[in-house]
Amino acid sequence: MNDVSPILLLMAGMLGVAAVTAWGLGIYVVVRACRRRQRKAWPFVLLAIVPGPIFLGVATLARMQGRCPFRWTFAQVLSLAAGITAAVHYLSGLIGLQVLLDMGIMLACLVIAMLPLIVLAFLGPAKPNEKLQGKGLLIDARGLHKSYHLGNRELAVLRNVSLSVQSGEFVAILGASGSGKSTLLHLLGLLDSIDSGSLLLDGIDSRSLQGSRRDAIRSREIGFVFQFYHLLPELTVLENVMLPAMTELGPATWVAQKAAVRQRAEEILGRVGLSERIGHRPRQLSGGEQQRVAIARALVNNPKILLADEPTGNLDSKTGLAIIELLKGLNTKQRQTVVMVTHDAALAQMADRIVRLRDGKMETA
Q1: What's the pTM value of the predicted model, to 2 decimals?
Q2: Is it true that domain 137-364 has CATH number 3.40.50.720?
Q3: Cα–Cα distance list, 197 to 137, 148, 180, 194 (Å)
Q4: 53-62, 95-104, 237-246: which has the minimum mean pLDDT?
């Protein structure tokens, strides 16, 4: 259970409660119907319970085989439908069609009431058509200030920081631990908001980006690579890389575009040298391989800006150098804009330009 995320466990628990509730209501309806018709209840109670274990059995089998449960959705639905069909067939002959008709009407009313919610969930959230052009001055930060409050104390992390990044440039932000490097990257990546100053991303003022517009830019146009990878342990390498594209789409759109997303994910994994590892899980990979997966995941939506927060900080020197060479190759061959923060001066030398951050202030190296 160590490789299962708490969120997945919570979702599984909620689904379990919903399933038990549904089976309980089904059993109650069957028992009431049997009493009205003066029939023995236990055969029909058994019949009402059968579809549930079939449904969970197929999902468990998929999990044991190391397959993504989404691939078994149709098999699960068919199993459940088969159980319901059998129940309807026997109940219609033994307890009468009137009872089944009443149950059907109640179910139809419930479905109709939930139909708008079902349609919205199926289509997924609407996404603003917000894009960066990816040409010229991509990042223009001027006079940024950022502070945090710790009780009654105000901690100034960034003070009057300015930074400009051109499209296709590889910029390294060099600084010691606690100098504000990660905070600056979070501001540039729209993970946090500035207190004062101005931040333009391809000419778009970050202050004007709110709600779904801000989310759209961050999801589509900015890729993040973190020191500790942040891969989901229950997903395979390929599924981890496909995840950002999956979250952008509703179920209906995902079905239509899944093949194209998979092809792009496989292409990127080939580019970072992991074609033979797409079916493995993160725990089966080395630290360097996990970071390569994280880079591939950051690139799957074809972002204009790639932000790397200490991408070598959790790796040995040899593996770390290989990761920097990979980022440099993406910048040189694909003209990928890269902004990397690091405390390693030797690795920073591989960038086109180095800026130094000291005590929350920026200095040109």
Answers
A1: 0.67
A2: no
A3: 17, 16, 16, 7
A4: 53-62
